[in-house]
Each structure stands twice: as structure tokens, then as C-alpha cells.
Design a protein that fits this description.
Elements (H helix, E strand, L loop, with lengths): L1 H25 L13 H32 L7
Helix pairs in contact: 1-2
Length: about 80
């Protein structure tokens, strides 16, 4: 049971790290050119949704890559 708990904790931490990295990266974009004037709430919501989507994609990629790398030892196991 402990490995599942460790894997869950690692997944939560990785997701939070990539959420923070994605938010930091999105702060560098100039959304004012893409959003109509006076639509601040919609612009903030779009930034949050983009952050979640990008963080989810990147963390899923990272966790899959980590899992597949750990399973490579079974390739040569007889």
C-alpha cells in the first residue's frame, strides 16, 4: 500500500510544481492585445484555465515518462 501512497504524493507535488511553472510562464504573455477592453474577469479566467491545461499536459507527460523509465528494468527481466 505504501508505494501507491508515495506515487500519489509524487503526482500531487509534480502537478503543483508544473502548475506554478505554467502560471509563471503565462504571466509573461500580453493578454491585453487578445482580450476585449473591460473583460478583466474573462481574461483572468482564461489565464487560469490555460495554466491548468498546460500544467496537466506537462505533468502527465513527466509522470508517464518517469513511470515508463522505471518500468524499463522489466525489459531485460527473465
Amino acid at each position: 500500500m505504501q508505494p501507491f501512497g508515495q506515487q500519489s504524493l509524487l503526482s500531487i507535488i509534480i502537478n503543483l510544481v508544473f502548475l506554478a511553472v505554467s502560471w509563471w510562464a503565462i504571466q509573461g504573455l500580453n493578454f491585453e492585445k487578445f482580450i476585449k477592453s473591460g473583460k478583466v474577469v474573462q481574461a483572468r479566467l482564461l489565464m487560469i484555465l490555460l495554466t491548468i491545461a498546460i500544467a496537466s499536459l506537462v505533468s502527465t507527460f513527466f509522470l508517464n515518462y518517469l513511470s515508463w523509465s522505471l518500468q524499463l528494468k522489466y525489459l531485460f527481466y527473465v
